[in-house]
Write a structure and sequence with these properties.
151 residues, alpha+beta, 3-stranded antiparallel beta sheet, 5 strands
């Protein structure tokens, strides 16, 4: 009976840790998308066009993701990270002034749809939960974040 109790206890601890992991990773992805969406293209802004600088947005998203999840530049976990496997950016889209707003972004592969009212960023990343015990089956998520340029 004690073995069953320990197995149930290990399962409960693993499930709670998995929930903490998904919440922390989702917050990191949301922050990365928000930071990327705020990278205004200053040259276009001088001409009165509100647009996101694609180069700055990509670099900023990776920097925020790396910082908030304690990853290195290649999105591999560092010693301080609660993750053990690298984070994979599956989709990174910048929706700029070249489309009509409101614009509906749809990604069939990840079954994700969002409507943007102004330029924005969509970020989808794959995160694996580092199981503490072998009781819980492997858990992986495709986490999605979207943010619009605030002006």
């Amino acid at each position: 009976m004690i073995v069953v109790w320990w197995m149930l206890h290990a399962l409960q601890i693993d499930e709670e840790a998995a929930m903490r992991t998904v919440h922390e990773a989702k917050r990191a992805i949301d922050r990365a998308a928000h930071a990327a969406a705020q990278q205004v293209d200053r040259e276009k802004l001088e001409m009165g066009v509100i647009s996101i600088d694609a180069g700055l947005a990509g670099a900023t998203a990776l920097a925020y993701l790396s910082h908030n999840l304690s990853l290195d530049a290649g999105l591999e976990p560092t010693a301080r990270s609660f993750l053990r496997d690298p984070v994979e950016v599956k989709a990174f889209a910048i929706i700029n002034e070249d489309v009509g707003f409101p614009y509906t972004y749809y990604n069939a592969q990840y079954e994700y749809e969002v409507t943007l009212d102004r330029p924005g960023v969509v970020l989808i990343a794959h995160v694996k939960y580092p199981r503490l015990f072998g009781v819980l089956a492997p858990v992986e998520w495709d986490l999605k974040g979207t943010a619009e340029l605030v002006f």
